[in-house]
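Reopening this one. Same input as before:
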Amino acid sequence: VSLMQKEMGKLSEEGIGEIDKCAACCRYYAEFGPAFLATKEIKTDALKSYVAFEPIGTVLSIMPWNFPYWQAFRCLVPALLAGNTVVLKHASNVSGCALKIAELVEEAFERDDLFQVVLLSGKDALALVSRPQVSGVSFTGSTPVGREIAALAGRELKKAVLELGGSDAYVVLADADLEKAAEICATSRLLNAGQSCISAKRFIVEAAVYDRFETLFVAAMKGKKLAPLAREDLRDELHEQVKNSIREGAKLLCGGEMPAGAGNFYPPTVLSRVKPGMIAFDEETFGPVAALIEAKDAAEAVHLANQTNFGLGAAVFTKDRPTGIEIAEKRLNAGSCFINA
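Same output, byte for byte:
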């Protein structure tokens, strides 16, 4: 945990939670992994038909800095379990965490040829995708780089798993429990100081309850404790997004100022009356900045939620469970959709 704090900044309680999640990942695959890999027979008119799961070889893992242990473990553990080896190219600002993982793997397996760390620039790491020794690639990071990796892997006919940027929409309907929704929304937005691709970023609220939710949400955001952002350049970029969104017509309700003193701290920031075409709506804001958007009704709220190039996750808040299920399952164009959570 102290190494994470030193390299990229993280609250100690969040760091402990990340380590616990890595341990849970190991236990999960140790318990259920063998069943996942068991040969599955299929009934056909042949003498015997079955699907067998065999290792593919070496998996190249290119991972970001925001969850330096978890991002690596969620690729490493199932890949090793399936009989593969892994080469990790971690973000340059968390090289110490990467080397610590390599140390732990070598200690656990008493061998050093299952997992290796390469210390390369991002550009040089892309060249590894085409190397014949690499059989597949797992990448978490920005959409532009993901496109490059997808193109390289496609050209080489190699398997690729990509988790790219996100600007998740949380839809708050008029019948929602507003106090609970505001607290959940603020917690999600400020996870890891807002540096999470799957955290909530756009909050789309029905007009009938917009003002009340706005008041509750701002209070919840102000009450949260934050770690500093990972790097100075990331804070500068985030601040420019905020300033440009205000110039475009967004209303600043709290935060939005660069604090004095040491550390890359940035305050919880809420932008209200955000609309499509504004930076806070169209781009991913990777830090503690929330965009509040008003919708005249539920139909428009869903339309606004889907008006994005991102699609990692979404949520809907309502007391009407059937409506929540219908919106989450059928109408929100996102990978993981939640109801009241």
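So the earlier flakiness isn't reproducible anymore. For the record, The chain has twelve helices and 14 strands.
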